[in-house]
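seq/struct pair 1
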Amino acid sequence: MKELRSHRWLYGANETGLLHQGALRAVGIDMDRYEGQPVIGIANTWSEFNNCNMSLRAIAEKVKCGVREAGGIPLEFPVISLGEELMKPTAMLYRNLLSLEVEENIRSYPMDGVVLLGNCDKTVPGLLMGACSANIPTIQLNAGPKRVGVFKGQRLGSGTDLWKYWDELRTGKISEEDWNEIGKALSCGFGACNTMGTASTMNGLMEALGIMPFGLSTLPVDDERRYAMSRDAGRRIVQMVFEDLKPSDIMTLDAFRNATRVCMALGGSTNAILHLTAIAGRLDIDLYPDEFDNIGRVIPCLADVQPTGTRLIDEFDRDGGVPALMKAMQNVLDLSVRNYAGKSLGELLDGYESPKGEVIRTFDSPVTPAPTLAILKGNLTPRGAVVKVSAADPRLMIHKGRAVVFESYADMLARIDDPNLDVDPDSVLVLKYAGPRGVPGMPEWGMIPIPKKLKEAGVTDMVRISDGRMSGTSFGTVVLHVAPEAAMGGTFAVIRSGDVIHLNIPERTINVELSEAEIADRLAQWKAPESAHLRGYPLLYQREVCQADEGCDFAFLRQSRKIKPGLVEPIVGRS
């Protein structure tokens, strides 16, 4: 039998092998039948704080069944659950912590392969980032989207409809009673958002990267096919251990290019730019900005799903889901890349028919033309910023307006609905100090509300700029992920109300009418904000986090070209 990583623990010298086998006996493993079988870790982000991930307990049991059937030893372990709704200031603050936890669990325990169980936004990339760094055989599974809630006969999209109805409540178009009923309708059971938010986007991209079963990501949360595929994954991970098939073998540059193309065709979340950049960075692959911009210029949105489109994920799934989308765009994909099952993308797509052009469109009839997402640069954001073009107002693609600046999220909340706010429909709303270091964690504060007096006058969109993020379920002409962020200094830190900003999405530029001398003079007077965090993980995060153009990862976790991905193995002996 092939010598496995776990054998160093379980066949250890002196008394340690017996000690380690005894630890597994204590949790119910029949070590009398142990003949060197692989040990498979199951990293579970289940938590009662995170309704998106609640069904992962059932998924874990199916994976265990499959591992046992293939002759492996399944051992489930908990990792931090990043619940987008309850975790403050943002789950993004803890994505890197989850990745560290996954990597260190793999390093320190006798695992030969790992199955990652996530669903909610940041759990999915956080799990995979850690597994990429460890670089042992890996499969990722999700729990699926939640059911669709209904309010007065209308099917509700998670997040997207919430933001729309919130504006209606602010302007008196619906009552408090209606608002409360909408809240109840949106609370429709376990599962991730049923729109093309970050969860649906990232889970779909896991299929495109080849690390998640083809067709799994959009299956309903309680679908029997989901359980069967999870069981199959348990069997397959054991085989992958003997094949030594690792994330670095699967997620190549060509695979990331395919995933980026799929992201554009999905009308995917702007957050995907951050997460793909961070995941690729763990494998020493560069995507930002060139890959995103080059691909974004030619791939239109093909998925008619909120917020870019009108449908919901259950309809997208019935039309074939991610595999059908990839079938519709197979002429622009690299079909030679292989997934965790060892099959090429071409082989996988052979089993699918082209979609009918309803929920999943064709290149001849897209939901929106290219670009879907775009990377902008200029004196306002020299290292880049992101805009979701497919969810923006076409009238604002080229725009000039004077800035209305909010120096913090609290400042914005206090003033946005003030009838005396000096703002008009052509103004550019600017939110500063919402970036990775500034809060910390880069919350989803970027979709600044339309000021109440303008909303009441019928204004539906304005140019908004922030060094923060926005929910994948959000919409509007919103420029995000400004790098460097305000807390790092640079032009964005010294923008003032009244400055004139030029946005030109076709030219991929965003600039402010300030001379270099004026910018330098303002920066000479600028003082970096003092952090309230003097200890703990938030302090570590602020000290180590990279900017948005590097995926907001920690510099010490990004892969170096000097070494290959993988673990520095622990010395196995007495603890």
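seq/struct pair 2
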Amino acid sequence: MAPKKTPKSGARAWRVLLIVAANAVCLFLLWRLVFAAHGGPDTEARAATGAASASEEPTTAPRPLRQRDTKLEGRIRAAIAEGERKANSISKGRVTPGECTVSVHVRELGTDGEIVSIDADRAMRPASNLKLVTSAAALVLMGPDGRFETVFESTGRVSEGVLTGDLVAHAGGDPLYDRDAQGDVTRLLAPLVDGLRLQGVRRITGALVLDEGTFLQPGPGPAWPGESQHWQEFCALSGGFNVNAGCLTAFVRATQPGRPADVDVRPHGHGLARRVDVQTGPAKSKLDVRVGVQGDAVRVGGSIPSSVPSWEGRFAAPDPVVLFGGAVLDALNRAGIQVDGGVVRERRAVQADSRVLARLVTPLVDVLGPINTYSNNACADQLFLTMGRWQIGQGTREGGRAATARALEMLGLDAQSLVQVDGSGLSRDNRISARQITGLVDAVLRRDPRAAQAFRDSLAVGGETGTLDRRLGALEGRVHAKTGFIGGTSALSGILDARDGRVLVFSILVEYPNVEGLNTNCWKPMQDDICEALAGLHGTG
């Protein structure tokens, strides 16, 4: 039987336990101090996990840090040197390496730091790589559910099929473009026709009034190509209203040799006189069709071989607002809806007693593909102006620039050093650095999953689609990027799936003396070689 403890012996036992515990705590604290002073385990653990400071968001996941890859950078510098050597050779010495500037920046998606940086902070002309800025800004500001909307309203009332008064269209900046329709806009304008029919409208006693709101008067942008090129598709104009992305489409069908070919100029209702003379030649004759607008007439001439079933060519219309009005009036007439007053162009505020009769709506994501995959300038400029209207209340170049700056600030990027005067990159006054482009692409792809997917899906795919369908065959499907070219400027930026599983964000910008043939023979091959090196096809990691 165990002896019974006295109160005195119990107190003594508790004192012993307290002394032991106090000694243990002191030893532990001493151990912490010693290891911390020598960079011990606790310090290493905090560094490895990226523990947040008091000023950081505690819920923000740490981003891994990547270091420069000097070996890979050396291979890229060698590719640049080869491109410069070719430029010197092809130009027969007129272009020297010192006259060419190549800027390259590469980072891994979702990480800090950089893998390659070659003159990456230099402000460069981006050409059509500026479309990445325009489309990314739109996704940030409007989200993947953003849309263009053109509203048709009237203060009049419909009685026995007659709308008494005007039908007023309020500008929404929509390019109204279907790349696969060969210029036919019937499908695009169908919601307007259906909406008026639903209201019982068969006749409008007033006019179709085009209210351009705060959108600018259509015209060439600053530092665009010269007037002799303004008829080309890449110089198509933008404004509050547009259709077929500011272009006319000549659709030519061969008939029998020696007979006139069938020529259709779309959209119908364009309002220009026709000067058409295309002959059908023998099966092996030369395809030679010339298109354009001279004065108040559209001209289509030349010849088409009988062995070529059809040919399609796009060229800029003189005024996208006039083109829209004519196309709408033609669509209404074809649907049996008469407009007594024709088309009137007038900036008119929405009336308090007006009611909406119809809408034309185009999802933003439907326009991103034409912009980034196929590099449609007018669609990009329409989006640029419309962002200004959405965000700033001004559908102008200044409004678009302010909207883009707002988007970049929302992404935590520098907006002050960006120089943007249009949405397409056609102007030679635009400036951006390769580092800014990779930062933008990285930020957008990490922001919102649906917006990121829309952005990625809008890019051309190497060896498969759009402006990259005949490039980067060795990397088929691995590169999603935007090409860029204006005289003396070449660019390629986007994302690349490397062999080691990394997703790389890259930008390659080139400026050089404007000598014909250098982009195709020097800079495009150089850009493709750099992408192959980044992917690890030449033994790089």
